[in-house]
Amino acid sequence: MIGRIAGTIILSQPPQLMIDCNGVGYEIEAPLSVFYDLPPVGKPVVLFTHLTVRDDAHLLFGFSSIAQRAMFRELIKVTGVGAKMAIAILSGLSAEEFSVCIADHDVATLTRLPGIGKKTAERLIVEMQDRVAKLPTESGVPASVGADSAGGSKQGQAVAALEALGFKNAEARKMVKSASGDTVEEVIRDALKAVSA
Q1: What pTM does this model have?
Q2: How do the domains of the chain map onto residue ranges?
Q3: CA distances from 70 to 18, 113, 133 (A)
């Protein structure tokens, strides 16, 4: 398995790019979000990759982070979701934004993505519900903390603390959203007060 490539970009035409690695040109398909942060052609780049071997092709997919690749690997396990659809999902949403959609059962946002109908969105929510909480994120904290964590912000830490107390992720998010406070402890206290009121 090819898990990481470091080399020089010699072609960049979304969704395809080619990276020269010691004289070998690797053709890679990547989400559009990867292209936003790519250096210009001729500059060095490092991508995390996933290799898919089929009867008719070996396909290499590139990602800017381990979190993005981990999300891709979970997405392709979902019934009816192939590599192309997983790339489309990660082109429209970051791994953390997708995690939030799953936690909040946000069918409307998912159906705005190309190729995702209502049934597919509902299947994604059902099948990914337990998986996203275990995935790494860009900041290294569990995905269950969500996109609002900003690498461990007080809201994200409060959500994680409420989950540790036994609240479901979506419930904890709603509690934290309406809570206020200058510290994590104050946010948690305010969220718990609202529940007991």
Answers
A1: 0.68
A2: 4-64, 67-135, 153-197
A3: 22, 20, 12
